[in-house]
Specification:
By secondary structure, the chain is of the alpha/beta class. The protein contains 7 helices and 8 strands, in the order ββββαβαβααααβαβ. β1 and β2 form a beta hairpin. α1 packs across α2. The protein is globular, with a radius of gyration of 17 Å.
């Protein structure tokens, strides 16, 4: 399906690339940390039987501007609002995974009139209440050998059986072209996320999805979100 790529300009003057596919009521798809919109490539068409999809390249990734300044999940949520405004979309359903789920929390809590329904996949409330991944996983991802760290991430994202049946490309391992400083800015934005006090302000009906074998974002976070967000269901 042909993809249209455009840019929205945020109030602080940053150009955010966004992409629209399909027809129907809009579904905003928010990708994980240090990833651009290609995160969704392998599943995006599945939504197009009934929906149009809107993706974006976070600042620091893809075809968006890459300012070397502090990023945050709240800032990324404001960038989503800029994209919705550029498309004249008053209200949309939102599906965010991993860091995208953290951005979606900020979006739904701070801009409740813009989010009709919410899906949070493999994500965390962050802060002192969030359940961190194990120290062994953190060390493996932070090792100096970039190739070994990427292999660790791949093994956390995909089972051996999946990799054998699907030789790639693997679009959830990070934007390979983003600058090093931007990658660090994304890491800090995700690390400093803390939406605990905001979660009760989410008014959109919310579905929470999480795999029970997830070591990258422990599944215990799903129950925390479900208990904290009104009208939330856990799958």
């Amino acid at each position: 399906m042909k993809e249209s790529t455009m840019h929205a300009t945020t109030p602080d003057g940053v150009r955010i690339a966004y992409q629209v596919q399909g027809r129907g009521a809009p579904l905003v798809l928010l990708s994980g940390q240090a990833n651009n919109h290609h995160w969704w490539d392998s599943v995006r068409a599945d939504f197009h039987t009934a929906r149009s999809t809107v993706t974006m390249d976070y600042r620091g990734t893809g075809a968006s501007d890459k300012p070397d300044e502090a990023y945050s999940t709240e800032l990324f949520a404001r960038d989503v609002i800029a994209v919705l405004d550029a498309l004249s979309i008053d209200r949309a359903d939102v599906y965010g995974t991993s860091m995208g789920g953290r951005v979606a929390q900020q979006l739904a809590a701070r801009h409740p009139h813009r989010v009709a329904a919410l899906v949070l996949g493999c994500t965390s409330p962050g802060g002192s209440h969030g359940v961190e991944r194990g120290i062994d996983v953190r060390k493996a991802l932070a090792q100096a050998d970039a190739r070994a760290a990427r292999q660790t991430l791949m093994e956390l994202m995909y089972t051996p059986e999946w990799r054998a049946a699907h030789p790639g490309p693997y679009d959830t391992l990070g934007d390979p072209d983003m600058p090093t400083y931007a990658r660090h800015r994304h890491l800090m934005a995700s690390h400093l996320h803390d939406a605990w006090d905001l979660l009760p302000d989410i008014t959109a009906p919310t579905a929470i999805l999480h795999g029970t074998a997830d070591l990258l974002c422990p599944v215990a976070n799903a129950a925390l979100l479900a208990d904290r967000i009104p009208d939330a269901g856990l799958t």
